[in-house]
Amino acid sequence: MINSKKNHLINNSKTDRLILFVNKILLSLIVVIVTIPLLYVLLGSFLQPNILITRGISFDPAHWTIDGYVRIFQDGSIVRGFFNSIMYATGFTLVAITFTVLAGYSLSVDDLVGKKFFTIFFLIAMFFNGGMIPTYLVVRSLGLLNTPWAIILPGAVGVWNLILARTFFKGIPNELKEAARIDGATDFQIFIKIILPLAKPIIFVLALFAFIGQWNAYFQAMIYLDDRSLYPLQLVLREILIQNEVQPGMIADQLARAEMQRIAEMIKYSSIVVASLPLLIMYPFFQKYFEKGVMVGSLK
């Protein structure tokens, strides 16, 4: 009965219905545009290379193969790059979340000494930076070149994420903190037992942003790393996809050049799928926090 009354009260005009219809059409087109390349890459990674090149996508099971994935996991550079990327992305995320949450909460406190100074300082850093060469010189002077820390530490704290965290913390009622202080809780206990449990949405969103950003990054590794054993997966894929360099161990030496190119094409698609798996696995667990967290900036 209540639902029928609500439906009766919601009476969209013709213009509203037209707008909703157009939005549904546009969103459906966007879904199709995004989905088709993903399906093409996924199906291409399971197709025999000669079928993929000559006929394109085939749904005949007789043309399917997992040889591309077998060759990927047999090759040391891709497997090593995969685990390097997990290490870099996880370390980068932990550092980013730790310092962003601590700094964001500090800036949300009204009686913080020098709050205005620190806010202006961070805002200036958001719009102006030293550039690539000064950053490289700083990394070199700290002895971080050719180490995992050169990938994890620089750029771990983003000012925009810091402002997003501060905005979220300012939305937490001060009455909760005052009630905890009356019960004898210290500032540290308030932060750990009250603030952090309430900050799960923003923490998960910031973690997702940091992990995805670092997982897809390769430029820093090009600049700071010389040891190929430290290369992240994206840098290994860059050599395969852009420079078309496939390691000799992935393709037998006796194969003809044409056959090598066909197998290289199959390895490209398989590598893209493998590189996308961690993000596809992560997102469903973060989805329930994502919408609530990203809306923080628009509500303030």
UniProtKB/TrEMBL annotation:
Organism domain of life: Bacteria
- What's in the keyword line of the UniProt record? Cell membrane, Membrane, Transmembrane, Transmembrane helix, Transport
Q: Which SUPFAM superfamilies match?
A: MetI-like
Q: Which residues cross the membrane?
A: 21-43, 86-105, 117-137, 149-169, 190-212, 266-286
Checking Gene3D superfamilies in the record gives:
MetI-like
Write one Pfam family the protein is assigned to. Answer: BPD_transp_1
The question of whether Magnesium is a record keyword is answered with no
Residues in ABC transmembrane type-1 domain copies: 82-285
UniProt membrane topology term = Multi-pass membrane protein
**Which compartment or compartments is the protein found in?**
Cell membrane
Which InterPro entries does the UniProt record give?
MetI-like, MetI-like_sf
Q: Does the keyword Heme apply?
A: no
Which Gene Ontology BP terms does the record give?
transmembrane transport
GO cellular-component term (any):
plasma membrane
PANTHER family registered for this protein in UniProt: ABC TRANSPORTER PERMEASE PROTEIN MG189-RELATED-RELATED, POLYGALACTURONAN_RHAMNOGALACTURONAN TRANSPORT SYSTEM PERMEASE PROTEIN YTCP
- Record-stated family: Belongs to the binding-protein-dependent transport system permease family.
> Which protein, by its recorded name, is this?
Sugar ABC transporter permease
